Every structure is written in C-alpha cells, then in structure tokens.
Amino acid sequence: VQLQASGGGLVQAGGSLRLSCISSRDIFSLNAVNWYRQAPGKEREGVSCISGINGLTYYRDSVKGRFTISKDNVKNTVLLQMNSVNSDDTAKYYCATGPSCGSIPGTLYVAHYWGKGTLVTVSS
C-alpha cells in the first residue's frame, strides 16, 4: 500500500488549504486515516483522525473548528480542509492509516502505512 499526500504550499495567515491523501489500494473503507504534522525542531503530533467503518472524526484541540477531515471511499481519498490557518500550522503534514483511531484525538493506535508528507507554510 502506498499513500500519497498532496496539496501543501504557501498560504497566508487566515487563509485556507486542502490536503489530499490518496491510497493505492481500497483500504480506507475499513481502516482509519490520520493526519500528522511535524514542525521544524518539534516532535510529530497528531492532527485529525477519521475512522474506517463509521467515519467518525477526531481532532486535536488546536485545530477544532478550523480543520475538517473527510473521505471518499470510492476514490480512496481522505481530505483535510484547513481554514483560518495560522503560523502554528506551519509543518510537514503526513497521512497514515491503521486499524482504528487512537484514544488521543487526532492519532492512530498504530499506523501501518505512511505517506511521504506535504509541506504547509503559513506566512504572516
């Protein structure tokens, strides 16, 4: 399985960006998909998770109300709509998939596959 994340780029503070994660195989219908991010000099952190079967969504507190995760099982795609971005959102964003979302909102219990990441830079 290969995951391809795309959609990153340079965006002004307050603006919007939409990230995509595409899978080479039809696995999103049964597996959770998570977006992680890692800012320069910081540890990786979970951002948002969408569960496999019932599509429940989870977010870390700092992105609640601004980011929306969704998926299209037919297209094997998970999207992360990012609105009202700020400088704290600057990071490389990775998508990953695993059996279920984790107990910490915006994480997986275990990630089986990772994408290579897409860079988001928010300018002030």
Provide a short characterization of the protein structure.
With about 120 residues, the protein is an all-beta fold. Helices cover about 0% and strands about 50% of the residues. A hairpin with a 4-residue loop joins strand 7 and strand 8.
Strand content: over 45%
Kindly state the number of beta strands: 11
The value of Rg in angstroms is: 13 Å
* C-alpha geometry: globular
Helix segment count? Answer: 0
How would you sum up the major sheet? 7 strands, mixed
Uncertain stretches = none
How much helical structure, as a percent, in the residues?
under 10%
Element-by-element helix/strand order: EEEEEEEEEEE
How many angstroms separate the termini? 37 Å
Mean pLDDT: 96
Which structural class is indicated by helix and strand composition?
mainly beta
Describe the structure.
The protein has strands at 3-6, 9-12, 17-23, 32-38, 45-50, 57-59, 67-72, 77-82, 91-98, 113-114, 118-123. It is mainly β. The strands form 2 sheets. Strands 2, 4, 5, 6, 9, 10 and 11 form a 7-stranded mixed β-sheet that branches. A 4-stranded antiparallel β-sheet has the order 1-3-8-7, with no helix packed on it. It is globular and about 40 Å long. The mean pLDDT is 96.
